[in-house]
Structure formats: structure tokens, C-alpha cells
Write the C-alpha cells for this entry.
Amino acid sequence: MSGNAHSNAERAKTHKPVFFKVVAFLSTLSGWCSAGMTVIAIAITCQMIFVRFVLNGSTVWQTEAVVFLIVAATLIGLPFVQQLRGHVNVNLIPLMLPPSGRYFLAIFTYSISIFTISIMLWFSYEFWHLAFTRGWTSDSVWAPSLWIVYSSLPIGFSLLILQLTSDLAAIVLKLEAPFGLEAD
């Protein structure tokens, strides 16, 4: 009986509905974009060091670009980290609960997370929209349009909500075990 249940669980993991595959693709793509932004920020930092200390020149845009890229990489990379469960995770309470308790705790935590990130998405969209409609630019000499910079907020939060929704649906549909802990 347990062998049959195990094979059903394995089959469910390999034959997930299209929604799960699309969300996984988007989360993986966000991870690649985040990694790319980090590599670009490192390259700009190296260029900035060369210009300052070898050529004894001044830098105008590099520091600001690196800050914007690292912040954007962090926000855009959120769904990828969630997909990999790469965040700090303490399973003390789930380990102490029976499987049914783990199930309801997972549903509760995912629901609260989706609700909280939805609020953040709402306000970040308003912030982005304000920068876009008013044509805000940075106060530096470079003066990039801030709507471009701030777009990482709603993009990152939207993709994170998609990944959290996918994770919640996988628990509800019993395609994945809550907290990755199989029943004892």
C-alpha cells in the first residue's frame, strides 16, 4: 500500500498541471535575471575601481547603478529563492506537529504570506505609478528615470505572489508535502 502511495506521489510531482510549470519557469527566469543583474553590478564595480584608482578619474553613474542593480536583483530574485526554499527555515514547530497540523499550518503561513506580499505589491505599484506619471528622476548628475528603477518592486512582488500561490496550491492539492516533511 505504501509503495503504491509513493508511486502516486512521484507521478503527481512529475505530471503537475501547466500552471505549476509556468510559475516554475517564471521563477527560474527571475533567478537568472537576478543573477545577471548581480554579475553586471560586479562588472560595473570593477570598472569603477579601475577608473578611480588606475586612471584617477571620477565616476558619475557607477555607484548609483550598482545600488539600483543589487536592489532590483534582490527583489526580482524573490520568487526563485522561494521556489528553492532557499530562505532561512526553522522547522521546529512543523516537526512537532502531526501531519494534519503541518497541513493546516502550511496553509495558514502561505495565506498570511500572500496577504502580506499583496499589500506590499499594492503600495509598491502606487509608488512606481507615482514615479512614472510625475517623471521622477534621481537627484544625481546621471538622473535616471526612477520609474525604471522602481519597477522591480511590483515585478518582484507579483512574481513572489505567483510562486507563493503555486506553493499553496501544491499543498492543497497534495502534490507536495507541507514544509517538505513527509508523513511519519
Summary: Residues 15 and 21 are 9 Å apart (CA to CA). The mean pLDDT is 90. The longest helix spans residues 18-54.
